[in-house]
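Trying the structure run again after the queue cleared.
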Amino acid sequence: MENIIDAATAETGPKNLPDLTAVQARVLGTLMEKARTVPDSYPLTLNSLVLGCNQKSSRFPTMELAESDVFTALAAMKSIVNAAEQPLVRELSGSRTTRFEHNFQRAVGVPEQSAVILGLLMLRGPQTAGELRINAERWYKFADISSVEGFLEELQDRPADKGGALVQKLPRAPGAREQRWTHLMCGPVDLTLLATENEAQELATNEGSVIHQRISALEHEVTHLRQMFENLSKELGLSQP
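Done. Tokens:
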């Protein structure tokens, strides 16, 4: 089950945990997600974890990780510990198959709500406070957007002696009404690279929308032609196939 810690435990904080790689963040985020959404099958086997990391839905960017990639990331995160020797990931033996679980809250020193926000940002990429509240439904039910914003601000204003900021508010995108937030678990954000990735995602979304519109138009045309054919058959007294 998900590790839940109280405020007193969260106050201990980490001592400058190293930056994660993109693969490590995906593996960690997947463990955090599955602990909440499929608790009956958690902790996860290596195979289940690979499948979760490579999901096409609720992931940005999408990845195609091999078992070796995920195993290497797990091995690295088992050795990432805080001042209290709490690792990010733990390996559980004792059954026929080795399983893995995260230890995010204790290792990073954050409350449950903050852990949910960071997990979502690691899995889905930059999001607004409103998007985070909606996407968190299966993880944790925030009362309102202002509650999400409060935890985001706490994570952004986190003092250096507790590890420093863990999220960053991004510049407002052209045409956007709200600013998005991103995590800093992988270190400082490359805004130029992030903009390029967002443009690619928007292009893919737009192309998919255009294709959908074309299919809908073709379906409408086929329906119209079928109706014309049926009417003509009736007028000529022909049997319809």
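The chain has two domains: 7-189, 190-241. Worth checking whether this holds up in the mutant runs.
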